[in-house]
Amino acid sequence: MDLYACTSYQQVLTAMISQHKSVRGYQKQLSEAAGCHTSYLSQVRCGKAQLTPDHAAGLASFWQFDEAASDYFLTLVQLDRASSPALKTMLRTRINRLKREHDRLTTRLKEKTTMPVLDQVSYYNTWRHAVIHMAAMIPGWQSETILAKRLSLPVELVQGSLLVLERLGLVTKDRGKWEIGGQLQHLSDDSPLLPIHQANFRELARARTQLRGKNDVQYSAVYALSEKDNERLRRETLDFIEHTRQVVIPSKSETVACLVCDFFEL
């Protein structure tokens, strides 16, 4: 369930019950967590009663929502209970702010660059540094000559990137083998270096379209669609990006792949 796609707390409640329909006695567990009778919860689902903030806090805890998700859910409850136009406007503004904060990739990926600014400039001024940084994680690739061969790059460029990475503390050399040494990096979406970083990888992707590797996936499209479906695709794109991190982090290092993703409204 995408909590932040829900525009009412009733949608959240219905989605969670549907998601756990195979769990015996789930609605009773919810009513106990909320501190109300099961029949009252049924009335809430039918629109004949309202959750209180106390009910909502109990449910958010039961569902193990983090602080931001709990805040969003409780604000939905407050919006449904609000009577004055001024309060409703304030709560809708808060909901939109919480959505925007959640949609920031920096927030969703929970990663950030910890390097000093000048070091960031060195790291992000070419795609080669990031690619070689990742490639140094792969057993059997950890020499200049093999890296150059596998990445189809001149040895001199690979050597230059490795020296930069070593200076930044991101790789180390031990008995002739290069190994990853520092934290993985992720630029925040408000970094002035982000456009340069993204442009570098778009240039790499453009070059790859000429090679047409057998396992490459290359796709571009323009759609005319509803506002609702535009928002749906935008959120699904964000979910996909977040999912890739969940797959990659525990994955065994055997090859290097590049994902370049854009979705924008014209």
Strand and helix layout:
Blueprint: H1 9-19, H2 26-34, H3 38-45, H4 53-62, H5 67-81, H6 85-103, H7 105-109, H8 117-124, H9 127-135, H10 144-151, H11 155-167, E1 171-174, E2 177-180, H12 194-211, H13 227-248
Antiparallel strand pairs: 1-2
Helix pairs in contact: 2-4, 4-5, 5-6, 9-11, 10-11
Question: Which residue ranges are poorly predicted, with pLDDT under 50 across at least 5 consecutive positions?
Answer: none
Number of strands: 2
Oligomer: single chain
User: Could you describe the largest sheet, including whether it forms a barrel?
Assistant: 2 strands, antiparallel
Number of helices: 13
- In helices, the fraction of residues equals 55-70%
**Arrangement of strands in the largest sheet:** 1-2
- Average pLDDT level: 89
Instruction: Tell me the distance between the termini.
Output: 28 Å
Q: How would you classify the helix and strand content by structural class?
A: mainly alpha
Instruction: Determine the strand fraction and express it as a percent band.
Output: under 5%
Along the chain, the helix and strand elements come as: HHHHHHHHHHHEEHH
